[in-house]
Design a protein that fits this description.
Helices cover about 40% and strands about 10% of the residues. The model has no long low-confidence stretch (mean pLDDT about 95). The strands form six sheets. Strands 12, 13, 14, 15, 16, 17, 18 and 19 form an eight-stranded antiparallel sheet that branches. The chain has about 1000 residues and is an alpha/beta fold. The longest helix has 22 residues. The chain starts with about 20 loop residues before the first helix and ends in a 7-residue tail after the last helix. The structure holds flavin-adenine dinucleotide (FAD) and iron/sulfur cluster (2 copies). One iron/sulfur cluster binds next to α26.
């Protein structure tokens, strides 16, 4: 290298500024509010929702700013620089090493700075804002046959800004490397308030960049030998700043120009400590024509990894390891247990590990040749092959959820994220793991493993109890010994997740003093006042690793105190575990696929994601929102506001890898509030007692409907119920009971009996659906009984009136049990999914004391179905089977499932029977939540968001098919279709089946 170099003494970096006191914080917030910087969130509640990421830490930020544009973000950063306030840029907040929590002003880019600014297909580049999500980008690139190479497991919700911050890499890094290998340029805001475009060649155009580069060269070049000796040579290494890359670029530059230097590459992986990314230009790769996945089963991890070199010889795009611990937790998980079935089992012995072998090819023939080659190489092993996108995506699910799934392990010792992404050369991985296992065993614990095996990057989760001081000391020892082990193997301390709070203190042990001084020097050049994410990568003490733990934020364990709960928490292993279950991985921030979480999708607001609610509940219940920091705060208005936009759709219960069940916790929290003196509002009480209102309305039908249409009456009803003026309260009909009592049907005592659940909607509001159900069931040869029962409790449960729910549900449960016993009913069938879900879900979880036999409730739940689900399940056993119509001609049928149905027993519960009658005409919509969720969408304050959620994925496909028959089992979904699509009518599946078998629905 021939450019001029001056050796410079290490400058003193300023101590990180202390957090402002409350008075100053308020002043700052006021000042910010008067500027145009976006949303200013400096209240304690909102701040605390940003005190955690996906790591084990909790650090209270100074405040949060959610800019509506990068221009606003720039202004906010400028303000913080002028006031010397620490700054923490944030994307999806999915970091695992604690680099995304700090005593700083958080700038949340994820909500609004998510525009794809430009795609240049010819130049194969994309220019994006930092809040763009990789999956969002790839969807926009797909029509051009291009994609962004690094494919992180969090691609559905991480941000490009965060990927740059962490220099992230994904499963295909054997082909595509890390983010830095795809970074062309960054528009950066520096800590001195300047905005620079950093890219290769910038030194030739911009004097400021040239000056900056010169100063960097002055500190890097004298350490050439040390950098070459100390930096790992593995594909995956992300510890510290990228001195090795910069050194190469400096050496490749012509004398005095630095024209090959790209300072964006120094920012990449700097964890927000050097500059703030306002925009990035990325290079793109050609998307593979054909993808395939083979999964090979092994008896143990060692056997799997010893096969790695052979597999790598067959040029795969990725090889990923999953061990039996991860497979075990997946089997216990509501959603992920289905994906375990997609794994092969070894012909002999237990399945101790699987390898996912991904292939990219130019044709299916080449792909199949590759698969055959694998089978030839592993003749003794079971191999499952996947080559269609749908089944492949399903098969990948389990691997992608490996990390969050591990948080589902119960017991005091958990698989904790602190030595979780070492990387060694793949040919040494088996030996490394064997030694690592020995190390963990010597310290009296075990670990879970999964790995990006093709690049030697190993996720190790030793089992420790971070609440125990003995175990936190053990963590420190294990981390140090693991560092030494990695060094012996010539590997990287972090191949993926970065340094943050967990590893910064190990950097000196790993790289040595000289390299770490160079890091400090570079930090001082960029950020002499130490304002940007202070501490990370530069200065942390060994004890930082186990300080500010989420369970022990101020060195005091914040436990959930003993509470007499309304629900039982056996499934979650206690109320305490239920409250602390969210691990922050942020899967609930995904925007596509499944339903979780409709209110996040509608608002893009951390506060209104499942994670925000999980955090709010944990903080309120562990007393962290109370003045004494200990006593649960059951009446916290801010926590209630955070819970308010939860639709209680239950999607998180099945889609969150930890099965966090916010609907249940929200109801529990609200109920605890009621029992601690909070009064239920009039509208809450009216909604809870909806059955009584509906029964009365039905008894004076049609008068009630005529009156309800009169504007003053409608206005009054809407006001009392808290409904939005644009919502029409449900109409009434002649009660199903009355219709049943007036019918003249021959009672065939020999026919098997079915109890039809008389939910209040089917009984009083839409009795034509109840009539259709009765007549279709009779057509199939059943004797239908519609007993007179009380409420299933749904409206009490969803309003959090759990004391009343216990009374109402136990009374109805006793009546229903008696009705099924007396009639020897073979099944209980329901038309309304949300009422069936009460029986199958909440009745089993609600503490009903000794009032109802739990075993009997379990049996009742087992024999309770949606009416169409029952007809399909018992297809071969029906006493009669009406002729199947040939329904293949006519308009398409579009089925939208109810959220509870999708979460608890799947949309096929409605689709299968419809498919039998209508075959290919049926299209099952991937429509998430309709946005209504019972009374939620009726409420005045929820109307806009409710419609917005409907727009997300339901209204558009229906608008595109104006002639289609819309089918929705849920009454509120049908209402939402009506209100959102100008009065369009949606039918219940049983009405459509009635048409198919020519059953006349009586009046
Ligand atoms: C379940 C799970 C699986 C994961 N799998 C992978 C994987 O396969 N590969 C992988 O590499 N990582 C993985 N990670 C880690 C993490 O998801 C990735 O590093 C991800 O790219 C981080 O993106 P983010 O938007 O969440 O970043 P954040 O956590 O929000 O931020 C990351 C860092 O970047 C900084 N930053 C964010 N935005 C900016 C900005 N605009 N300007 C400057 N700095 C900024 C932050 O300050 C922080 O230091 C996983 C994490 C989890 C929980
Ligand atoms: S709620 Fe579930 S998906 Fe969301 S961050 Fe928490 S654990 Fe992850
Ligand atoms: S119940 Fe539905 S709306 Fe509420 S947090 Fe879970 S996914 Fe979100």
């Amino acid at each position: 290298m021939r450019c001029s170099v001056t050796t410079v003494a290490l400058p003193q970096l300023r101590e990180a500024a202390p957090a402002p006191d409350e008075a100053r914080r308020e002043r700052i917030a006021r000042e910010l509010q008067s500027l145009d910087v976006g949303e200013v969130r400096f209240g304690r509640h909102e701040r605390m929702l940003y005190a955690t990421d996906a790591s084990m830490y909790q650090v209270e930020p100074i405040g949060v700013i959610v800019p509506r544009s990068t221009a606003q973000a720039q202004k906010a950063v400028q303000f913080c620089i002028e006031r010397e306030l620490a700054i923490l840029p944030r994307g999806g907040g999915t970091s695992l090493a604690g680099q995304c929590v700090n005593q700083a002003v958080v700038i949340d880019f994820s909500a609004h700075c998510r525009e794809i600014l430009e795609i240049d297909p010819a130049g194969r580049t994309a220019r994006v804002e930092p809040g763009v999500v990789p999956d969002q980008l790839n969807a926009a690139l797909a029509p051009h046959g291009l994609m962004f190479g690094p494919d992180v497991a969090t691609s559905a919700h991480a941000n490009i800004g965060g990927m740059i911050g962490n220099n992230s890499a994904g499963a295909y890094s054997i082909l595509y490397g890390r983010t830095v290998e795809h970074l062309v340029a960054i528009e950066a805001m520096l800590a001195d308030g300047t905005r620079l475009r950093l890219e290769e060649g910038a030194t030739l155009r911009d004097e400021r960049v040239r000056d900056l580069t010169q100063r960097i060269a002055n500190v890097i070049l004298p350490r050439e030998r040390e950098i070459e000796a100390r930096f790992p040579k593995t594909i995956r290494h992300v510890d510290g700043y990228n001195l090795d890359l910069l050194l190469k670029q400096l050496k490749a530059s012509k004398p005095g120009t630095f024209e090959r230097v790209n300072l964006a590459h120094l920012l990449c992986g700097s964890e927000g400590t050097l500059a703030v990314t306002l925009e990035a230009t990325l290079n793109l790769v050609v998307a593979p024509q054909v993808r395939g996945l083979a999964i090979i089963a092994f008896n143990n991890v060692d056997q799997a990894l010893r096969s790695l070199t052979t597999i790598l010889g067959a040029a795969p795009a990725a090889v990923e390891l999953v061990d039996d611990v991860v497979i075990g937790v997946a089997r216990e998980n509501r959603e992920y247990r289905h994906y375990v079935d997609l794994l092969p089992s070894p012909p002999r012995g237990a399945r101790g590990a699987v390898l996912y072998v991904a292939h990219f090819a130019d044709s299916r023939e080449t792909l199949h040749r590759r698969f055959d080659e694998l089978s030839r190489l592993f003749p003794q092993h079971a191999i499952n092959r996947y080559d269609d996108p749908r089944s492949m995506a399903s098969a990948w699910q389990l691997r992608k959820a490996g990390e969050p799934l591990l948080h589902g392990l119960h017991g005091p010792r958990k698989p904790v994220t602190f030595i979780e992404d070492t990387a060694v050369n793949p040919d040494r991985l088996a030996d490394f793991i064997a030694e690592f296992r020995g190390l963990v065993a010597r310290h009296g614990t075990t670990a879970a493993y999964y790995a990006h095996a093709s690049v030697g990057c190993l996720h190790i989760r030793p089992m420790v109890n971070i609440k125990e001081t003995g175990d936190t000391r053990l963590m420190q020892r294990l981390a140090e010994e693991a560092t030494d082990l990695v060094m012996r193997y010539g590997g990287a301390l972090s191949g993926e997740h970065g340094d943050g709070r967990v590893r910064t203190h190990l950097l000196e042990r790993f790289y040595g003093r000289e390299i770490c001084d160079t890091f400090r020097h570079i930090k001082a050049i960029f950020d002499p006042k130490n304002l940007l994410n202070p501490g990370n990568l530069i200065e942390m003490k060994p004890e930082t690793m186990v300080s500010n733990l989420r369970v022990k934020p101020a060195d005091r364990i914040v436990d959930v105190p003993p509470v007499r709960t309304f629900f039982r928490y056996e499934r979650e292993h206690g109320f305490g575990e239920a409250v602390e279950m969210c691990n922050g991985a942020g899967v609930c921030r995904k925007m596509k696929g499944g339903t979780m979480c409709p209110s996040y999708r509608g608002t893009l607001d951390e506060r209104h994601a499942t994670r925000g609610r999980g955090n709010a509940l944990r903080l309120a219940i562990t007393g962290q929102f109370s003045s004494d920091g200990r006593t649960p705060k059951w009446d916290d208005p801010e926590t209630k506001a955070t819970l308010d936009l939860c639709l209680s759709c239950k999607a998180c219960k099945s889609e969150c890898p930890s099965n966090v069940d916010i609907a249940k916790l929200k109801a529990e929290y609200t109920a605890q509030g009621f029992s601690h003196g909070v009064r239920a509002s009039l509208s809450t009480r009216l909604i809870a007692n909806l059955r009584a209102i509906n029964r009365f309305g039905s008894s004076v039908h049609p008068l009630a409907d005529l009156a309800a249409r009169l504007p003053p009456v409608r206005g009054l009803v809407n006001r009392m119920m808290g409904f939005h003026p644009r919502r029409q309260p449900p109409a009434f009909g002649q009660s199903l009971h009355r219709w049943m009592s007036r019918r003249r049907v021959r009672d065939d005592a020999a026919a098997p009996a079915i109890v039809l659940l008389p939910d209040c909607f089917t009984t009083y509001n839409e009795p034509h659906i109840g009539r259709a159900a009765v007549q279709v069931l009779e057509a199939f040869g059943y004797r239908v009984i519609v007993p007179r029962l009380g409420c299933c409790g749904r409206t009490f449960l969803s309003t959090g009136m759990l004391a009343e729910s216990q009374r109402v549900c136990s009374a109805t449960a006793r009546e229903l049990l008696e009705a099924t016993r007396q009639t020897s009913a073979v099944a209980v069938v329901a038309c309304e999914p949300s009422c069936l879900s009460a029986i199958k879900d909440e009745w089993l979880e609600l503490d009903m004391g000794g009032d109802v036999n739990r075993e009997a409730l379990g049996e009742l739940a087992e024999k309770s179905f949606l009416v169409e689900q029952f007809l399909e399940r018992a297809w071969t056993q029906h006493p009669r089977r009406p002729i199947e119509s040939s329904g293949d001609k006519g308009p398409p049928l579009m089925l939208h499932g109810h959220c509870h149905q999708k979460a608890l027993w799947g949309i096929d519960s409605s689709a299968a029977l419809l498919r039998r009658f209508y075959g290919g005409r049926l299209r099952v919509l991937d429509s998430g939540c309709c946005g209504m969720a019972g009374q939620w969408g009726y409420q005045r304050e929820h109307y806009e968001l409710s419609m917005n959620i409907g727009e997300q994925s339901l209204f558009a496909p229906l608008r595109d098919q104006p002639d289609a028959i819309v089918i929705a089992p849920g009454t509120s979904c049908r209402q939402q279709v009506h209100d959102g699509l100008g009065g369009r009518r949606a039918l219940h599946p049983i009405e459509v089946i009635a048409q198919a078998i020519n059953v006349e629905v009586g009046v």
